[in-house]
């Protein structure tokens, strides 16, 4: 039986007929390709926008609570340095080694998701245990679970090959792993992250070859469970009603949404000017985290918000092009997964801020304040940048450099 039939994945590798040992030797001799620098420029620009807007959004709040208007900016800047260092490491590791680390990563992720629920380890804020304190910093395990979902499913669907279309042998084991993750995150509780991981997993499974009928059937089965989960708890039902009509409870559950509308509306087309927003004056809750997009609309206007939206759309397009330009199936899935991980939460965050989606507590990738989110998004960017090295144009450039070097030696 051919390798293609065994794995269910067509092998387009340029070295498919070369023995593995010889292929590794050729790869070792080949100059290492540079990645897609435009990806790096997009992420850096988003990060700089984030630093500027975090300072604008949090300066007054930080001055009042910490007697330092740059308190949140300094912490985000520190996390930015850690994230960029992590990017440099991840962008250069051999990607196939990730497949060897899936099992240890799974153990670590589940250990963290359980640990965060334990008193004395997990830090409780506003009734939720989502963070593990590490001295002056805090780490959010569910953010790491999001990246693990991408790596795990990229490995899993390639490993299963054609068997992924079988429900019990292919889909069911993945559902157990992802389902346990989501269940632990719901216990925190963190509905927003649970929804992100669920949608991300569904998209990756579909792209990996899982039957649409299987996924659609599971989705239909979940509807009664979701309705029961909402209706059994009054505050969740109230949040849904406030989403449908924020003015039904303008001083409580609908307050944040109304203030977001006011921020976006008052900004108009050109905005009120950087630093001139009024909603950050203790009107709009979380102006530097989940609702920073509203402040961008207030200070930079429709032009600012549309520019930001176009950047994420361009990142989605760029990542998709990279995914379909590589030959290795694992690299392709990894590229699509990291691209969706960085862009899906962005689109959902914008949907929440503009009232298109219910409030879920989602960060705007690379822009919102938050070290865990920033670190994981830069790690995802590092993986995508790494994959871009193996696309044909960048391999060709590396090959040309190698020939030039050999010619010079000759």
UniProtKB/TrEMBL annotation:
Subcellular location: Cell membrane
GO MF annotation list: lipid-linked peptidoglycan transporter activity; peptidoglycan glycosyltransferase activity
Superkingdom assignment: Bacteria
GO aspect biological process, one term: cell wall organization
InterPro entries to which the protein is assigned, alphabetical: Cell_cycle_FtsW-rel_CS, FtsW, FtsW/RodA
Reactions accelerated catalytically: [GlcNAc-(1->4)-Mur2Ac(oyl-L-Ala-gamma-D-Glu-L-Lys-D-Ala-D-Ala)](n)-di-trans,octa-cis-undecaprenyl diphosphate + beta-D-GlcNAc-(1->4)-Mur2Ac(oyl-L-Ala-gamma-D-Glu-L-Lys-D-Ala-D-Ala)-di-trans,octa-cis-undecaprenyl diphosphate = [GlcNAc-(1->4)-Mur2Ac(oyl-L-Ala-gamma-D-Glu-L-Lys-D-Ala-D-Ala)](n+1)-di-trans,octa-cis-undecaprenyl diphosphate + di-trans,octa-cis-undecaprenyl diphosphate + H(+)
EC number: 2.4.99.28
Gene designation per UniProt: ftsW
Higher taxonomy: Bacteria, Pseudomonadati, Nitrospirota, Nitrospiria, Candidatus Troglogloeales
A Pfam family the protein falls into: FTSW_RODA_SPOVE
Membrane topology type: Multi-pass membrane protein
Name of the protein in its database record: Probable peptidoglycan glycosyltransferase FtsW
